[in-house]
Amino acid sequence: MTDVTFAGTLPAIQRTQDHRYIYQGVTYPGVTTALGVLDKSGALMTWAARQTAEAFYALTVESDAGLKLLETVGKDGIIKAVTSRANWQRDEAAALGTAVHHWADQHIQGLPLPVQSDTAKLYTDHYAEWWQRSGWKLRLSEAVVVSPAVDGVHEGYGGTLDLLCYDADGRTVLADIKTGKGVYREAILQLAAYSMAQYVSKMGAAEVYEMPLVQRHVIIHVTRDGVREVELSIGAREWAAWWSCLDLYRWTETVKGKL
Predict the structure, then answer these.
(1) Which residues have CB under 8 Å from 74's CB, separation 6+?
(2) Residue 243 belongs to domain spanning
(3) Which of 88, 155, 172, 202 minimizes the number of CB atoms within 10 Å of its CB?
(4) CA Rg, the chain, in Å?
(5) How many domains does the chain have?
(6) Which of 174, 186, 167, 184 is nearest to 241 (CA)?
(7) What is the pLDDT of residues 25-79, one digit of tens each?
């Protein structure tokens, strides 16, 4: 990352297990944590309801399995198993997404990949094929960013970006890898926040650099069917929306547990 301005010998940006970021002794919330204030209930409730319905359908059609489960765990056990389906489906999807992120990072750095499940290998192969076609040149991957607090303006935040690259035309592109079924609106604010960060550093490194000017914002959507690039338009409105989101998150933290 020698092509951006070196900000001096600064302490490393540290990330905690709960995705908070420590810079020069100050702890900041993560971008994805702050985005948790956005209402996702509509899409999530529909998805959770479908998972429950599919579980009920399976037990109804496979009546022998349903009866055996009833004998084993009883009515309450079945209700708990069916209603918790959304949770374990979500956890499995999150685990796959984390793994694909890691293996994608290994691939573009030329590191060997471990033995994978068929599903994970399918996703990783799609990503590898896309990377070869893209013509992109890596600048940083799995890097941490921080935007320190500015007195009287905004409180700070941190985050972890997936890819900072040059595209085939030499433009600086900031990209995030998504492996879910869809790409949701909070991804826009996520990349808006990363692109506005003041400093960027390789995870665990002592060198901290000024964040370069981002010319493209792209979601790399990896599914079992392939990869698509989702180009995002980010400007003053999206940056203002991000700051509003961060302010709302900060406000919710001040009233937590007091009502």
Answers:
(1) none
(2) 14-37+112-254
(3) 88
(4) 21
(5) 1
(6) 186
(7) 999 999 999 999 886 554 444 544 454 545 554 545 455 555 555 456 555 655 5
